[in-house]
Amino acid sequence: MQELDITNLDDIRQCLLENMTDVVINCAAYTNVDKAEDDYATADLLNHKAVENLAVACKERSATLIHISTDYVFQGDGNLPCMEDHPTNPLGIYGKTKLAGELSIQNSGCNYLIFRTAWLYSPFGNNFVKTMRRLTSERTTLQVVFDQIGTPTYAGDLARLIYHIIETNQLYKTGIYHFSNEASVHGMILPRK
Ligand SMILES: NC(=O)c1ccc[n+]([C@@H]2O[C@H](COP(=O)([O-])OP(=O)(O)OC[C@H]3O[C@@H](n4cnc5c(N)ncnc54)[C@H](OP(=O)(O)O)[C@@H]3O)[C@@H](O)[C@H]2O)c1
Q1: Distance (Å) from CA 119 to ligand 1 centroid
Q2: d(CA 139, ligand 1 centre) in Å
Q3: DSSP helix/strand/coil, 113
Q4: Which atom of ligand 1 is nearest to the CA of 45?
Q5: How far is residue 94's CA from residue 97's CA, in Å, rounded to a whole number?
Q6: Is residue 144 part of a domain?
Q7: Is residue 63 scored above 90 in pLDDT?
Q8: Residue 157 lies in a domain
């Protein structure tokens, strides 16, 4: 499998040229929300500057950039779902750098679709669904904090949406979109002994 470091603009340009790329789907990011608080430089490099690189390269090639963003661009203190035009106000470094990435795409002039999603899970990697399944198989009772509300979203559904958009020639619909599965849950995954 070929790898591409998206912090390197020339490498991106070369990759898009060699592969005659029309659509770039960016799933890469710095996603460790807690660690980002102590590592602004790396979070900004990946979530902002590298995203700007992709947008610049897409603009040059008239390619479309599909980019995954997050509900962390919002303050997150409401009880109602946020619409796309809800004012952004990220509180932490992760959200701030993800928002900066969104803005750099918008300012680049490239054709783009940004999907803000939340609480992604899948059979791959680490995620809260896998963690909860493991913990509930190991313990009879769990204590979890109860201060977050979210909409768990199956990554396969987001992937299907992106595939559908490409397959049905809807790439011209430039803009920001919110995507999550339905139904919200309370709590998060930090077990307390
Ligand atoms: N997980 C969630 O609940 C959630 C919720 C909302 C939005 N999102 C967004 O969804 C997207 C995917 O999230 P995820 O949880 O799947 O992230 P993840 O598991 O942390 O994966 C991030 C990916 O970025 C790659 N990467 C890091 N540095 C790179 C570089 N310089 N060049 C190219 N690739 C690089 C990593 O590759 P290596 O493994 O090789 O380092 C890794 O495959 C992100 O944009 C995230 O902000 C996630």
Answers
A1: 13
A2: 30
A3: strand
A4: 31
A5: 5
A6: no
A7: yes
A8: yes
| Whether this model's pTM surpasses 0.85 | yes
- CA dist 108 → 56, 57, 105 (Å): 6, 9, 5
For the question of residue 154 being annotated catalytic, the response is: no
For the chain, what is the mean pLDDT? Answer: 92
**Does residue 31 register a pLDDT over 70?**
yes
Q: Which domain holds residue 106?
A: 9-120+153-181
Domain total of the chain: 1
| CATH number for 161 | 3.40.50.720
Q: Would residue 23 count as lying in a domain?
A: yes
Specify if 22 maps to a domain: yes
Are 43 and 100 in contact by the 8 Å Cβ rule? The answer is no
| Backbone angles phi and psi of 26, in degrees to 5 | -100, 110
In this prediction, residue 187 has a pLDDT band, given cuts at 50, 70 and 90, of low
Instruction: For 80-98, write each residue's pLDDT tens digit.
Output: 889 999 999 999 999 999 9
pLDDT at 123: 93
Pocket perturbation via mutation, ligand 1, pick of 9, 11, 26, 27 by most ligand atoms within 8 A of CB: 27
Take residue 86 and report the two structure tokens written for it.
């809800």
How far apart are alpha carbons 100 and 128 in whole angstroms?
A: 26
Find the helix or strand (DSSP H, E) in which 40 lies: helix 40-44
Q: Indicate the range of 56-65, 135-144, 156-165 predicted with least confidence.
A: 135-144
Question: Is the separation of the CB atoms in 82 and 69 below 8 Å?
Answer: no
